[in-house]
Specification:
two-stranded antiparallel sheet, single chain, 93 residues, mainly alpha, 55% helix, elongated
Length: 93
């Protein structure tokens, strides 16, 4: 439930920021999405999760082990850019 709460708070903050910036820039919607908002969302997705190293160490003491799944990582498709780009799993275009 805490994870959902964090995601809801992030969404509410992004919506408020979107509305404020869209009003401030006075750009056509497509131009705003492709320029300012595209870069803002890439920065948002690049941010690390809210759990720091201390969090992982404390959960390890509780018997919880955080490990990366060895399954395949799907391609990332960037939809809001001026052109559609597919990234491979290394992050290269």
């Amino acid at each position: 439930m805490d994870e959902q709460k964090i995601l809801i708070e992030q969404l509410e903050q992004l919506v408020s920021e979107f509305e404020a910036q869209f009003d401030a820039f006075q750009l056509p919607l497509t131009e705003f999405l492709q320029d300012f908002w595209y870069h803002r969302m890439m920065n948002f997705y690049s941010e690390r999760n809210p759990f720091d190293k201390k969090y992982y160490e404390e959960t390890r003491h509780l018997g919880i082990s955080w490990e990366v799944d060895d399954g395949p990582i799907p391609l990332v498709v960037q939809l809001l850019g001026p052109e559609l780009q597919e990234l491979d799993t290394t992050g290269k275009v």
